[in-house]
Amino acid sequence: MAELYNTAAPKKATNLSINSDLLHKTRELNINLSATLERALKEELSKREAAQWIEENRTAIKCYNDFVEQQGCFGDEFREF
Asked: What predicted TM-score, i.e. pTM, was given to this entire model?
């Protein structure tokens, strides 16, 4: 499977606006904001790309499922479980 994004790409500074109390509490616990944001964005990107793939392939998935329902899976006659 292809990489979700280029992990070797250079870091880029950016400005964010977040809840001040949330920021204060995360700093009190020494939470690395950059690393935490990168993990959250990677997870969100992964979810959205998966959903996009399903949407783009919805017709093919339906056709395959219809075929299996009508014809069965390839090799069913050899399955022993």
From this structure: 0.74
